[in-house]
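Internal QA ticket QA-208
Title: Verify multi-chain structure generation after dependency bump
Assignee: T.L.

Test input:
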Amino acid sequence: MTFEKIPYKIYLSEQELPAAWYNVRADMKHKPAPLLNPGTGAPMGFEDLRGVFCDELIRQELDNDTAEIPIPREIRDFYKMYRPSPLVRAYCLEEKLQTPANIYYKFEGNNTSGSHKLNSAIAQAYYAKRQGLLGVTTETGAGQWGTALSMACAYLGLDCKVYMVKVSYEQKPFRREVMRTYGASVTPSPSMETEIGRKILQEHPGTTGSLGCAISEAVEAAAKNPGYRYVLGSVLNQVLLHQSVIGLETKAALDKYGVVPDIIIGCAGGGSNLGGLISPFMGEKLRGERDYRILAVEPASCPSLTRGKFAYDFCDTGMVCPLAKMYTLGSGFIPSANHAGGLRYHGMSPVLSQLYHDGLIEAVAVEQTKVFEAAELFARVEGILPAPESSHAIRAAMDEALKCKETGEKKTIVFGLTGTGYFDMTAYEKFHNGEMSDYIPTDEELQASFNKLPQVPGLD
Ligand SMILES: *Cc1c(COP(=O)(O)O)cnc(C)c1O
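Actual output:
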């Protein structure tokens, strides 16, 4: 039932901003596996995690049962500066592709940090502040998470210490300066500031760093500085919870016009935007109310869902973090140096991993030159300059729309456009100069990394 012609942009009013996050774990029959202590193999409880994480965030991390968690007023007020975000009907892209499919995208790039990460950054900073902490530490890869956290900390008056993967620190000086504008201190990782950084530098002199390595440094810095805790921008259950605001708004906007998606698509790095986007739809699917096809899109050079193992693994390279059960390429896996398209984390959110394992979502891996082709076409017809990460979802959405063109099916496709690519012009430049290649890891390389997966005491 369509009530009127659907506008280019469906906006919700401020009053329609969700009042509660939705916790999809409440509806999962098979809950995501608990975090384990790497030394003993015992599940990590509230007390075990307090040295590293904020109290309220641990409660959210461990809560597999409460479906709706109210969004505190202070966080909703911050959300109102840039939310509800628009759901855009991609009329121009449909026209360009000559597809009968209807395509929509939820655009999360309309804030200075340029991505969806601000949705969780403000929540995590808020709970740290409410606990009376002085500051937070974190890692950042491409820089979006660090930027988002810097903005949230500046707003709340919290100190923010960011370990930035060295290759990004050097390639993206402007990202770094945005963070410093918001008052964060930014250190290239691996650094000499932490024990684990010094150890990694000794073993791998000249390394350009990795997310897993920066995480180890940030965790160490939080554990050693009183009044500081560590926060993480993806992967964790709490982050997917905060990101459910994306899916709740998407669903509310579609419901206004009686639109029911057939396929929901998102790029998957650590899984937070996709987890958030699909949450309310997955809830319906889990409760048997409605069915949707859900598609995770990852880079062929870092294919954790499509080629990884579902196993307990470290979240970081330094092996100081708890073990999480997830699809992983091994915590030592570092994507090839010519990989420019983001989404370079070795693992995947335990929630998404479980849903994938249970056959409730599908995954596809795409090559980066194909991703940038899609990004460029999208920019030219829809106007928005997409982040390389987001462009994985664009690629898959276009491929699905082109299939519809062949079969004549009028499917409704919704995808997450997670952010803008202004700071990714080095990658675009490589693409334009024909210097971008597609490195796909061999089975032997992956096997060598799997061989180093941790042996968990008490588990086989
Ligand atoms: C961080 C980021 C991603 C990937 O992270 P997820 O946790 O998988 O969502 C995707 N797009 C943009 C723009 C990002 O900044």
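Spot checks passed. The chain has two domains: 9-19+82-114+244-450, 20-28+35-68+117-230.
Status: verified.
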